């Protein structure tokens, strides 16, 4: 007898909490007069792809999902077509993916958020599924959820705080009438921009006030969305801003980072500015931006911080093992923490960014900075290796998986460092090419994220690297670079991220 159940019901994709959240989101649509719901999902680069659904289409998606093309997953960061979708396996070793078939985007209704800058518009995250109801194995949000599930099996949860640096610039010429529009594998000319402020300062209040008129709409939008904003700070370089958020648990961390980046870029652009999370733009005087991820492990039932040290300890025994796993897998995690060619310009000694696998007590030269005191429930660690363009879902998943492996395997972090830049320990990869090779040969993340995904990501990143290396052959003179940054990097990442 034929079934009349919808896709979500048929495959049991909503928990009871999500069923309730779906009903709440319907009411919010009516209450706020929402006409369009942007159904979004993070792609392999952490960029939000999406469809704008009318109100009836959104209500339908809460029952049956929404059909989307998987085409963005065959593209690298410049939209070069890397995989041939018309081979029997679609260029990916997954049965049924030949011919670039659709996947089903299922709204996660608990993430429904009204957008304060776009009239009558809301956004909601989606999870991607194959036609048989199986999770789409290339979706970063799914990979993070699966990793968090392995923590939950041991009654553990990861708690994290976001500290991210980025640039705010003023658009001088958008080049829409005169610049290249680009094409597959060739980014368009990025807009010509100017810094919104001059001079190197750090936490100078006058410097922050100078750009407050530009920051205020972004700040207002972020708080109106309900994101737990803590600070907007004047960072080191001209127009460089640091933004921090209160601690969150698990998936909410990555969703918040994604919503923040989306809000910042869209609100800035509507007001004549360009916000970029590219690590080091090719703009004279700009300095590298990082993303410091603050994490601790909690008891999933009680919420108790399990990393609080006893007297004489830097961290609890569990916390030390967590650090041990982070360091043990730090080289292989580089593609997740630092996924662009440009991001490796941070990895220099004495640059306040780590260049090797070290941990230290409240020392910003270390890869893992320990911030703790006996009895302090806020005790945690800061992973300082990430760049601002990192995919929030893969960054957090890589950290959670490595930390959990350290806890389960009781991995020692070794001696705590007093001089991190001088330690005789393994170095972090210094180029994206090296990082990709390390990941390709790594068994741990293959086990955690699946060989299909690792092989896929390696293929996509090698496309990116090969285009960069081909450009260098044609443009070998460093004197033509700005800030030691190539024009290729600026075109590839500045506007995109």
Give a short synopsis of this structure.
The chain has 497 residues and is an alpha+beta fold. Helices cover 33% and strands 20% of the residues.
Describe the structure.
With 497 residues, the protein is of the alpha+beta class. It contains 14 helices and 16 strands. It has helices at residues 7-10, 16-31, 55-64, 140-152, 205-210, 212-224, 251-270, 317-328, 334-337, 392-409, 432-440, 444-449, 451-474, 487-493, and strands at residues 36-42, 48-54, 66-69, 102-107, 113-114, 121-129, 156-173, 192-195, 229-234, 240-245, 248-249, 273-276, 290-299, 359-361, 368-371, 380-387. β5 (113-114) and β6 form a beta hairpin. The longest helix is centred in the C-terminal third of the chain and has 24 residues, at 451-474. The N and C termini lie far apart (50 Å). The model has no long low-confidence stretch (mean pLDDT 92).
Structural class: alpha+beta
Strand content: 15-25%
- The total of helices stands at 14
SSE arrangement, N to C: HHEEHEEEEHEEHHEEEHEEHHEEEHHHHH
Name the poorly predicted regions. Answer: none
Quick check: average pLDDT? 92
Specify Rg, calculated over alpha carbons.
22 Å
Distance between the termini: 50 Å
**Annotation, overall tally of beta strands:** 16
Report the helical percentage: 25-40%
Assembly of the depicted chains? single chain
Q: What global shape is seen?
A: globular
Largest sheet: 10 strands, mixed
């Amino acid at each position: 007898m034929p079934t009349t159940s919808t896709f979500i019901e048929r495959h049991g994709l909503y928990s009871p909490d999500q069923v309730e959240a779906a009903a709440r989101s319907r009411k919010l649509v009516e209450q706020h007069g929402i006409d369009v719901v942007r159904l979004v999902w993070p792609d392999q680069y952490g960029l939000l792809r999406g469809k704008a659904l009318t109100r009836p289409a959104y209500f339908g998606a809460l029952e049956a999902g929404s059909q989307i093309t998987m085409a963005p997953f065959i593209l690298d960061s410049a939209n070069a077509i890397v995989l041939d979708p018309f081979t029997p396996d679609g260029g990916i070793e997954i049965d049924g993916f030949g011919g670039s078939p659709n996947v089903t985007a299922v709204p996660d209704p608990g993430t429904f958020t009204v957008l304060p800058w776009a009239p009558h518009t809301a956004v909601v995250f989606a999870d991607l599924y194959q036609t048989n109801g199986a999770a789409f194995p290339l979706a970063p949000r799914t990979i993070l959820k699966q990793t968090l599930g392995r923590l939950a099996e041991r009654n553990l949860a990861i708690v994290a705080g976001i500290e991210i640096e980025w640039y705010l610039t003023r658009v001088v010429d958008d080049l829409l009438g005169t610049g290249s529009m680009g094409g597959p594998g060739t980014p368009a000319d990025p807009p010509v921009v100017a810094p919104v402020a001059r001079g190197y300062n750090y936490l100078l209040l006058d410097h922050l006030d100078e750009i407050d008129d530009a920051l205020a709409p972004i700040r207002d939008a972020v708080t109106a969305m309900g994101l737990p904003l803590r600070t907007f700070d004047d960072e080191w370089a001209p127009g460089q801003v640091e933004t921090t958020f209160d601690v969150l648990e698990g998936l909410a961390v990555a969703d918040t980072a994604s919503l923040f980046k989306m809000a910042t870029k869209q609100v800035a652009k509507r007001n004549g500015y360009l916000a970029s999370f590219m690590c080091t733009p090719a703009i004279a005087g700009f300095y590298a931006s990082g993303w410091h991820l603050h994490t601790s492990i909690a008891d999933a039932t009680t919420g108790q911080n399990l990393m609080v040290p006893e007297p004489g300890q830097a961290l609890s025994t569990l916390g030390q093992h967590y650090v041990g796993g982070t360091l043990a897998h730090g080289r292989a995690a580089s593609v997740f923490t630092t996924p662009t060619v440009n991001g490796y310009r941070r990895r220099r000694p004495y640059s306040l960014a780590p260049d090797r696998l070290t941990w230290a007590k409240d020392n910003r030269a270390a890869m893992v900075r320990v911030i703790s005191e006996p009895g302090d429930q806020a005790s945690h660690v800061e992973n300082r290796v990430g760049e601002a363009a990192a995919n929030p879902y893969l960054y957090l998943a890589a950290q959670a998986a490595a930390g959990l492996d350290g806890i389960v395997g009781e991995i020692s972090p070794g001696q705590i460092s007093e001089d991190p830049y001088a330690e005789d320990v393994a170095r972090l990869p210094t180029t994206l090419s090296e990082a990709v090779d390390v990941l390709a040969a790594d068994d741990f993340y293959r086990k955690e994220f699946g060989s299909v995904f690792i092989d896929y990501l390696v293929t996509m990143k090698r496309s990116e690297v090969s285009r960069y290396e081909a450009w260098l052959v044609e443009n070998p003179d460093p004197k033509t670079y700005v800030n030691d940054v190539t024009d290729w990097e600026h075109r590839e990442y500045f506007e995109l991220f």
